[in-house]
């Protein structure tokens, strides 16, 4: 009987095999769902944890351990007053990437200096801080995910300065430090793009409420009730007074009349309301225009009027910036003033109105693309005018800072809406010819990095504390 009983024992073995198979099946399901949870975007499309780096090369530079910025001035007390007096010198050091220079008999040595604007784009497997579902203030033309942009690699990069780390934007610390404060973003549609990035990041803490908009929705204001923080986007593409007849696509129906010695009252009339001013010029200065000074037409850019001198867009831009700086620096109101540099476009095979496209999916590596000649013309004017303004600002106690987003933006041809500025543009015809936007930025996208730079600047200036909670 014992032998017979032994021959009848295979059943428990088969039961154990089924348990093993079931365990393996459950484990496989866990792995699949974990993969989907980690590497899926809001639309459910699976994306890699890191974009492919094919075609990109590392610059080979290493970050120093100490990224703290400070200066050593033998024989001179370094305090708030001397900091203002040295601002122009420090700007020169930063823009020219030097470590020391002589100034008024003093040798200025910059130790552990970190240039936030010199670096490279590196992989960011965590992805963006928000998406088109969690943020409801994204304008349709920049809502690339909702509009059906198929690849998502552009979402998985972060800016890494060579000599230090750039902390992620912390909306909680920002809101806590900005209680009862107000911000104005003065300029063109790039600032509309930018302020929506800020709103999306801050909406993780509190939903903003729109409290004002003009009739065409170009100037808008939002308020955060709990912190009493106000963010305003003021439409003033030229900064100075202008008469422009432009359609919704940005086409000028006639020559723009630009008054270079008179500022746009849309922002000057409310300048005293704001604690922080962020401003810039932009692509509007490339349009055909007639320039006025002292109520007299003094010249033009790209116009057909034979009686007017061709002064070029450079003249107009330089004068507009100079007039703006004069007003801000001489004002008795002393907000923190931040100038943001020129934003390059990435049109290829044409421009906005001539069939230009942008279909790249990864950033440029250092040295791969240097920009267009107009980019360098405009950034040179901006740096020149800022340098001059910084010296005067130091003498008059104005707080003036430079947000140099040009280079890091130049390296991101993949961050624009391209053809996905409209909802699913190829749904009916995959070969359809559509308008590309290679100037504004997808949200989320590279423009979110601008807020990380601003926050780091505010931390360095003492306006935001890392201990804020």
CATH topology (level 3) name of the largest domain: Rossmann fold
The helicity comes to 25-40%
**What is the percentage of strand-forming residues?**
15-25%
What's the rounded overall pLDDT mean? 83
> How does the overall form come out from the CA principal axes?
globular
- What is the straight-line distance between the termini? 78 Å
CATH architecture grouping of the largest domain: 3-Layer(aba) Sandwich
Major β-sheet strand ordering: 7-8-9-6-12-15-16
Please, could you describe this protein's structure?
By secondary structure, the protein is of the alpha/beta class. The protein folds into 2 domains: 61-113, no CATH class; 120-461, Rossmann fold (3-Layer(aba) Sandwich), CATH 3.40.50. Helix content is 30%, strand content 18%. The strands form 4 sheets. The chain has a 7-stranded mixed beta sheet with strand order 7-8-9-6-12-15-16, sandwiched between helices. The chain has a 4-stranded mixed beta sheet with strand order 10-11-13-14. The chain has a 3-stranded antiparallel beta sheet with strand order 1-3-2, with no helix packed on it. A hairpin with a 6-residue loop joins strand 7 (209-213) and strand 8. The longest helix has 30 residues, at 10-39.
